[in-house]
């Protein structure tokens, strides 16, 4: 009994019960480009220990480069790979609860890969997780090569553009009935300096009257589905929204101009009428005056 009581302080300090076990997510962790993510890593098999007795090493699984290290009760970042500088944190207050997770800030495409979480408290163990990066594409837009309005019968290259997504998108074209148009389609996905893809798909078609051409884009990893369409009307005219609004705008301007012109003209006409009226009145007055001037003469006679 006495012996046990004397031993208690050291038992509290380090108490390894059975084998240390490290757990990480089994499915890939998907993080959005530019956002922060937590790489979860928990361990069990140790109940009580002193913080200065635990070591945690986060490494890139393939190159063994250091992502973040914690040892002797503090972060050890001298060996840290430069590209993780200022972007990682652990949660020391969570370590005693068996949580050795790593916060990774401002995730980039190059961060994709396998990460190993290595934990040592007397015993040691490790586990690896996969980090996948994702980015939403911009809503696609459809354009055509000719400056003029395409008409039914024209052979036109319709271009579908979407930007800064990850990973590569699935892009396909459909007509108004939902039929896939797979002939005469070319697609290119080019990575920018951040590793994000700009997608360009070109469909060459002979335009059918009264039909719709839809470009559909899917980013499977994050379940993004978006689309853009062009409508070829029976009146053999295509109005892309911009051209439509420009036309409406011009029509409104023209109408405004006409109204202003009408108002100005109306006033001018009214003014000249009044001038004429005034002139007429003046003349009548003159005549009246000459009449009255004559009357006394009559009276005098
Ligand atoms: C990390 O674990 C917490 C708690 O179990 C959970 O809510 C969170 O979704 C996990 N994060 C990731 C990226 O798996
Ligand atoms: C570990 O702790 C951090 C910070 O509190 C938390 O965000 C994360 O979800 C925790 N992970 C697990 C697996 O509990
Ligand atoms: C942890 O260990 C350090 C150094 O060995 C010691 O100074 C400290 O008192 C210990 N803390 C606890 C809670 O046992
Ligand atoms: C990390 O932060 C320190 C201090 O804020 C700064 O001096 C250093 O340039 C930063 N390093 C990187 C790679 O951003
Ligand atoms: C059209 O093609 C896409 C991509 O290949 C596919 O997911 C979709 O099910 C197809 N739709 C039809 C109606 O065939
Ligand atoms: C594909 O292009 C060829 C040559 O320009 C043309 O003969 C053919 O009709 C086109 N196919 C479709 C489905 O538009
Ligand atoms: C065009 O489409 C409209 C509505 O879908 C339909 O009412 C009209 O009959 C069609 N015209 C031609 C020429 O196919």
UniProtKB/TrEMBL annotation:
Primary localization class, coarse: membrane
Gene3D superfamilies (UniProt xref): Immunoglobulins
Membrane in keyword set: yes
Subcellular location: Membrane
Domain of life: Eukaryota
InterPro entries the record matches: BTN3A2-like_Ig-C, Ig-like_dom, Ig-like_dom_sf, Ig-like_fold, Ig_sub, Ig_V-set, IgSF_BTN/MOG
Region spans: Disordered: 278-301
Keyword annotations from UniProtKB, A to Z: Immunoglobulin domain, Membrane, Signal, Transmembrane, Transmembrane helix
Classification via SUPFAM superfamilies: Immunoglobulin
This protein's GO CC annotations: external side of plasma membrane
Record GO terms (molecular function): signaling receptor binding
Residues annotated as domain Ig-like: 9-134, 140-231
BP terms from Gene Ontology: regulation of cytokine production; T cell receptor signaling pathway
Transmembrane intervals: 242-266
Signal peptide: 1-18
PROSITE patterns found in the cross-reference section: IG_LIKE (PS50835)
Name under which the protein is recorded: CD276 antigen
Organism annotation: Chanos chanos (Milkfish)
Lineage of the organism: Eukaryota, Metazoa, Chordata, Craniata, Vertebrata
Gene this chain is encoded by: cd276
């Amino acid at each position: 009994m006495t012996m046990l009581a004397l031993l208690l302080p050291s038992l509290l300090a380090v108490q390894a019960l059975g084998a240390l076990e490290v757990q990480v997510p089994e499915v890939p962790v998907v993080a959005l480009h530019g956002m922060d993510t937590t790489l979860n890593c928990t361990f069990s098999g140790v109940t009580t220990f002193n913080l200065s007795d635990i070591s945690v090493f986060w490494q890139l699984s393939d190159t063994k480069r250091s992502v973040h290290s914690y040892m002797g009760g503090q972060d050890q970042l001298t060996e840290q790979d430069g590209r993780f500088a200022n972007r990682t944190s652990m949660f020391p207050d969570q370590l005693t609860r068996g949580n050795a997770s790593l916060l990774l800030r401002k995730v980039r495409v190059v961060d994709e890969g396998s990460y190993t979480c290595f934990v040592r408290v007397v015993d040691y163990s490790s586990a690896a997780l996969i980090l996948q990066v994702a980015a939403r594409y911009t809503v696609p837009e459809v354009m055509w090569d000719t400056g003029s309005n395409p008409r039914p019968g024209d052979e036109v290259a319709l271009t579908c553009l979407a930007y800064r997504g990850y990973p590569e998108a699935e892009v396909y074209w459909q007509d108004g009935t939902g039929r896939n148009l797979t002939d005469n389609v070319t697609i290119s996905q080019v990575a920018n300096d951040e590793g994000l893809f700009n997608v360009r798909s070109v469909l060459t078609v002979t335009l059918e009257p009264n039909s719709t051409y839809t470009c559909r884009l899917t980013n499977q990893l994050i379940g993004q589905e978006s689309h853009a369409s062009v409508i070829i009307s029976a009146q053999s005219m295509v109005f892309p929204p911009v051209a439509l609004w420009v036309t409406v705008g011009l029509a409104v301007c023209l109408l405004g101009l006409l109204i202003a012109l009408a108002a100005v003209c109306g006033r001018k006409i009214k003014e000249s009428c009044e001038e004429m009226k005034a002139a007429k009145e003046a003349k009548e007055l003159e005549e009246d005056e000459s009449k009255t001037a004559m009357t006394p003469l009559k009276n005098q006679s």
